[in-house]
What does this fold into?
Amino acid sequence: MTATVTNLPSLYEPFSTEAKWQKSWEENQVYTASPENGGEPYCIVIPPPNVTGSLHMGHAFESALIDTLVRYHRMKGRNTLWLPGTDHASIAVQAILEKQLKAEGKTRYDLGREKFLERAWQWKAESGGTIVNQLRRLGVSVDWSRERFTMDEGLSKAVLEAFVRLYEEGLIYRGNYLVNWCPATQSAVSDLEVESQDVNGHLWHFRYPLTDESGYVEVATTRPETMLGDTAVAVNPNDDRYKHLIGKMLRLPILGREIPVIADELVEMEFGTGCVKVTPAHDLNDFEMGKRHNLPFINIMNKDGTLNENAGLFQGQDRFVARQNVVQRLEADGVLVKVEEYKHTVPYSDRGKVPVEPLLSTQWFVKIRPLADRTLEFLDDRNSPEFIPQRWTKVYRDWLVNLKDWCISRQLWWGHQIPAWYAVSETNGEITDTTPFVVAQSAAAAQEKATAQFGKNVKLEQDPDVLDTWFSSGLWPFSTLGWPEQTRDLEFYYPTSTLVTGFDIIFFWVARMTMLAGHFTGQMPFKDVYIHGLVRDENNKKMSKSANNGIDPLILIEKYGTDALRYTLIKEVAGAGQDIRLEYNRKTDESVSVEASRNFANKLWNAARFVMMNLDGQTPQQLGSPISSELELSDRWILSRFYQVVQQTSDYIDKYGLGEAAKGLYDFIWGDFCDWYIELVKSRLQNKSTTASRQVAQQTLGYVLEGILKLLHPFMPHITEEIWHTLTQADANQFLALQSYPEVEQNLIDSELEQKFDLLIGTIRTIRNLRAEADIKPGIKVTAILQSENANERETLTQGQSYIQELAKIETLNITATVDQLESAIAGVIGTIQVLIPLTGVVDIEALRAKLKKDITKLEAEVKTLSTRLNNPNFVNKAPAEVVQGAKAALTEAETQLQILQERLRRLA
It folds into this structure.
């Protein structure tokens, strides 16, 4: 079969092309991996997006980076697996369902757990695949046959195995502890799910009278409602102001409860009055202080954020309503001293979006120190995993050093239910803090254990809580490959090769994966951790829901195509881990940066059409390799440049310099190949009779174009697959995605030749610029003089004389060591070469001078006007800043243009 031009339309239409190849890749299982194929494994597991999610620019950026790596390594011959999947997102899914139920006038308790979970699975089946389908629009080369879900059967089995083993090893325990409580979701949240926000609040000062009526102490707090749960006031034992009060009793305002004055070195003498109220059940520091001093722990709060019976007359009030009412009562009782404006940090629930409440609660915890310490050994002894950029290693390490025990229980129904069964028959049919329990992987196994321990009449009830979502996703790199079973996939693809993720998830996810993997598999779950930056908006601001400045990638895909968006996101990266800025017009939903990538795609398309139009219907394979042919100077140059770029691109990708690789390909394809080599060989192609020169030009065009498609494929997979199929006339079961990546031919790299060509190209550009300056019509051929005292330069110019004459429209070219002074000539310089074009008989010199003088006069007037305005203090000080800045920019531009025109006029003198 021979190629025909009609197979490649005159205009590139990305939408139908991209849809066609996405469907074809998937239907033909192009990306299905198998250990049985052998070779060196390369595996990436997708950072699983929430099943509730929809594609945002962060997903698009991350997926483009991963897909570029995966496609590159696949083409390099590695046995490549990119494993997809989603996270069950306990809090997010439950919030959606409870919102639906609320609209129906119901709660989850009206349905009961079983019916609620049926509804959750139904929602997942109907709506949970949105983001997966959107990821398909990006053309990601994942193995969809291995798609996983954190609550599928296999991963649920892994969660049970991990929990039971950690419990049996003493690394999971149940304890009464102060946790971050989210009243909105009515669940405990981990430290990592808390977002600190600076708020403008108040500092309330009030007095606690001594019971012996000898005076009072003054305390200050940002949460006055918690004084209802105070069980002491603490002072520093070294504070001379209060040493005499230590051991005395105070009367708690409003409630009248007697509480002691205690001494504790945790108290900062400089903060407030130096006296600190102690509420052990509602503050972490106070909790530790309460344990040290054996204080009572009085919880005043319900799980919905209202106050309970321990709050006295404030029972049933919302915590913030109670705050106002407590302050009013303190003021009425005459113990409120003052109220100060006070900016402080308040922890908010990342999911619930409300301030969290430190709440005394019985929860399940992972004993983190043994896990973290082992992970630190991998890092310190083996630099495993290796972070790119390296600066994130310290952040990761510091986090591991400072980790506290991990609260893993959540008061939700959607998720992995904790595999603990309580012997409620031992505590009057209720689950209490003291109810004995057994941990097992199934209800049957739990029943067997409990019967042996409590007798055959024991009645069991499973813990209603579910595990923190991050517990299951912490197992993701090995559970998705079959753990705890020793599967062939696990044996071959684990540890995985690279984790690509954002810096904001190092603590949530990366550290948990490394800790759990180190414990269960004895290895780190990935060799490298590539931390990418953020996609910032057109104003260089972080995109967020609260700022409402997100950019929908699907809008840009619809307008410009997937390849254009992918390529833009990668090319904008100026270094591994750096943030990128995406230009975007919110009024028109247009992006000049994505449009530039679409134009690049069109440039490649049109160049490919030109090449195929001149191959006489032959494929590169039929034409044969040009390497053994009699190559001309331009052929040797483009092949040298091609292999330099092959080396450069591979080196960059291997070191995660994806942005640099993309930019290098752009410069080579648009500049060297399209703008120069194609132009250089046009005259050789125009001779339709078969000549050796024409055949070599065809061979080189086809060879380099196919190589370009392979180099660019990981970045722009759809357009390259389309062009490659037309160029090579490949069968329907062949794919560019599975072709070998170009290998470097060192013997074809000629750096000296490339330097010579840089001189030739620079010379041609200089002549073209001089022609434009002199307003020489494009069709007019002129005489040019190239003067250089350097013999090597003159030799290079002589070797490329035909290229200079053809591309710069030169009739007569004189290459010389010396030159006489010319009248009416325009001159320029490239390196140490002087370029002169005599103008007599070519242009009307006097008319050109007159035009330049007229333009100069106009610009001089503009410079004067702008300078006068900017030297006027009234304008500079009173005009809007953007107006002043605009005037400065206009002045700079006018002055630059004036200098250019004055120099042109001088050269015509």
